[in-house]
Amino acid sequence: MFSKLSLSLLFIFTVTATPLSATTRTTLEFQAKALLQWKSKLKDKDSVLSSWSLATTPCSWLGITCSSLNISQINLYGKNLTGRLDTLNFTPFSSSLTNLDLSLNFFHGFIPPSISNLTKLTTLDLSENLITGSIPPSLGKLTKLTTLYLSDNSITSTILTEFGNLTSLLDLRISNNSITGTIPSSLSNLVMLNVLDLHNNFLSGSIPAEIGRLNNLTVLGLHTNNLTGTIPSSLGNLTGLSLLYLFNNQLSGTIPAELGKLVNLVHLILYHNSLTGSIPSTLGNLSAVQLLWLNENQISGSIPEEIGKLRNLTWLQLQRNNLQGTIPASLGNLTELAHLILYRNSISGYVPSELGKLVNLVEIDLSTNLLTGFIPTSLGNLKKLTTLALWRNQLSGSIPHELGSLTNLVNFVVEINKLTGSIPPSLGELRNLTHFLLSGNQLSGELPKELENLKSLTSFEVAYNNLSGNLPQSVCEGGALEFFIVNGNNFEGPLPRSLKNCTSLVRVRLENNRLNGNISEVFGVYPNLVYIDMSFNELSGELLPLWGGCHNLTILKMSNNNKVKGTIPPELGNLSELQVLDLSSNVLVGEIPGALGELTSLFNLSLSGNQLHGRIPKEIGRLNNLETLDLSSNHLSGTIPEQLGDCTKLTKLQLSNNTFNGSIPVQLGNLASTLQELLDLSSNSLTGQIPSPIGALRMLQDLNLSHNQLSGSIPSNFKDMGSLSVIDLSYNELVGPVPDNKLFAKAHTQWFSHNKGLCGQVIKGLLPCNSISVDNDHSSSNKKKIFAVFISVGTLLLFFVTIGTGLWYIHRRRSTTHGDADEGTNRAALTYSVWNRNARITYEDIIAATEDFDAKYCIGRGGYGTVYRATLQDQQVVAVKKIHPVEDENPVDLKSFRNEIESLTNIRHRNIVKLHGFCSSRRCEFLVYEYMERGSLASVLSTEEGAMELDWMRRVRVIKDMAHALSYMHYDCIPSIIHRDISSKNILLDFDFKACVSDFGTARLLKPDSSNWTSLAGTHGYVAPELAFTMRVTEKCDVYSFGVVALEVMVGKHPIELLSSLLSSTEQGMLVKDVVDQRISGPEGCVADSVMQAIKVAFECLNSDPESRPSMEHVSNELSISKPSLKPFNLVNVSELMN
Q1: 882 marked as part of a ligand binding site
Q2: pLDDT computed for residue 548 by the predictor
Q3: For residue 702, what are the β-bridge partners?
Q4: 128 Cα distance to chain centroid
Q5: Do residue 951 and residue 918 come from a single domain?
Q6: CA-to-CA separations, 101 to 88, 127, 182, 402, 718, in angstroms, rounded
Q7: What is the pTM of this model?
Q8: Does 981 participate in catalysis according to the annotation?
Q9: Residue of 720, 981, 1077, 1089 marked active site
Q10: Which residue ranges run through the membrane (predicted)?
Q11: Nearest to 450 by CA among 481, 420, 429
Q12: What band does 900 get if pLDDT is binned at 50, 70 and 90?
């Protein structure tokens, strides 16, 4: 009763001369009650609705406007209100409300159909809220609407055909939602429409030609959707259009010539589609255009001369197309142009000197084209220029000294050209320069002293030129230098003194020069340093303990300086990220510190060619990732520690030219599955017999035990070392027969010379064993006789088995049907094997270890076979892939396949799963691989726990590992190998997350004269698109698959959704931080830079044109070079990494 009385009294105070009717009071009272109900349901954090009370008239409340004493406008824009929109009562305002603005709040829920009762509404703005659900069809009844804003919500529905009834509409904006379906042609009824903005949704289908009827349209924003089809030529009728945004879709076909009629157009943005054909010359008629972005399409042909008529053009982007021809000189007429971006095309010819007229240019990027000729001196006129990027062309001549006038220049990038001459001193005037990149040219002469004026540098890169003289001493005085890359020149003299306190350094490459100076005085502590190589110089001084403070260091190379002395500081053991430590060929003394055993990430330790003494510390056995250990040519003594057998990933062990004594540790036999390249213990003082476990190193290629005092006989199991290509046992005291097998038959005599009594007919120059009396003992004589009998009987048995096998094979070929042989016969009937062990024993071991391939040992299934885990008698765990039977297998194909398997067993690379062998019987065929503890990359990414363990640094390493492996297969194997089926299921991880490429079930050797297989192969979702119609497999197919897997590593799941949306560019505007795997916190610092670099390279590999994809060799090299991002990780969007 009190509230009604109070409200009535309030109305009296608002009346002037005319008394209120009962109807008016009732309507306003009813509306006020409704608003107070709104207030009760809304969370008002800032108390902005405090004026909404019975103490004042509602016409004076915040956001309320009255007309004829009825509420006509409700404007609560940006009031930080929270609540459900669908709980608000709009009915009381149906007869009076003309403007409803609830934008920029936190309203959620759905749009209530009751809003359609507001029949007098002319403006409805619900944008920038959290609204979900569908758009009610009843909104089509609001025929007086002139403005409808629903943008920036989470609405999921289609665009209503009923919107075609809103014929008074001037402005329709539904962008940044999750709208699906097609654009209804009924929108063409909105003939009054000025703005149609539907961008950043999931719209599909084609652009209706009927849109061309909207003659009053000034803004058309359909970008960042899934639109397909061609651009309608009818858009050329929209002569009032000023903004045309169609980018980030899947539009195809040519650019309609009719767009040249849009004389009022200011922005024409069509980038990132699949547009083809040439740029229509009619675009030269767009006299008002300022932004012309046609980049990232498949546009071909040349740049039309007519583009030079666009006098108002400020930004021209044509990069990442298939443009050819030359850069037209008419571009010199574009006097307002600020950005000229043409990189990643096939443009040839000269850089036009006319570009020097464009005095407003801020950015020129002509990189990665086929440009020739000189850099025009006229570019020195461009005083506003901040970026000049001409890298990866074929430019020649010298760098014009006129470029020294570009005092605003920040980025000067001309690497990988054919530039000659000296670096002009005038470049020292570019005091704002941050990136000075001249690597990969033919520049000569000395660096001008004036370069010391460049105090803002973050990257100074002049590698791989013919430069000489001294390095600039003050190169890091500005305190910002991160990349100092000067390797591969003829620099001499001292290192820059400013490096001492340059804590910003990330990557330093000084190798292959003639630099001198004391490293003890030049270097300090670098918390961000990841890579430093100062090898092959003439440096002196000592390796100080302060290097232990560079906690992010992964590569430390200081080899072949010959003057670095002192001891190895134990503090190096603090470098937990260190992967490579190469201090070889210096004059280091003292003992090897046991603290190096803490470097558990280390895979290369090279200390050879020094004057180190003492024993090898037992702690080295803790380096379970170590692959190369080279301690040769020192003064090390004592026994070889048995703990080296714990370095179970060693592929190369080089301990020659020391003074080791004692016997060879039997524990080296533990390295049977990894030691592949070299075991060199030569030129020591080792005694005792060669332990038989050394014969278990069946993957070893090079064995050198020469120049020791080894005695006894060569172990008989040496005959099973089928991978050996070199074996040197000379200068020992060995006796007895040399094993009789293919390797020893081809061996050089000198490999066995100067021993006490080696014998055998297999080596030329050795006496037959029956002519040498090694021991007069009667039992020894009996053993020899028994041995001779066994040889004779074995020879006869082998003869009869060979004849019998031949007869059986002929019988089998003639027979049309066969009964099944019994199990024992099947197990014995090995028809073929390629193995590093005794084939029959291995076959039996596999059958026993898997209990005849019992399902409980199964760890995976694929299209080509089933994988089992097998623990052999020596406790070695292997993965066995039982190949699915192939009906009607062609004998020629089978022979070819087996030849390839034999070749694959010889592959030696740290990132390729080792293929131990292949066995074939009438019952089954199987491959035996190295066992990888963590299984496939796909399985690790599929679990929360696996994703958490696979942090960003590990993910980057996984991608690098894949790249190195594929580069090796494509470029280091002869003939080359194409994998054909790269997927996350075929990338396996060991316990330490080292990635190895696996499953050569579909791989084939690529012969130079081969066209490869003609059958489609690979895993769905990873197959290169061209295979669908060319059926020809090339290395570029592997490159594409690599790109998919690399993105999968970063996204955390197969990137099909991301790739699909990027084709339509829905995600392109998103930040990278929102696209990567959300299960782990975002990367930071240098790791973030590496993540972005990996994603960028992945996108390059996914180019739809195979010829435009990089080679895996290029990818491998690119990922090995850290490049800092110009923007923080949290601010980089996806499109920036796709450019």
Answers
A1: yes
A2: 94
A3: 678, 726
A4: 35
A5: no
A6: 14, 9, 28, 58, 87
A7: 0.70
A8: yes
A9: 981
A10: 786-810
A11: 429
A12: low
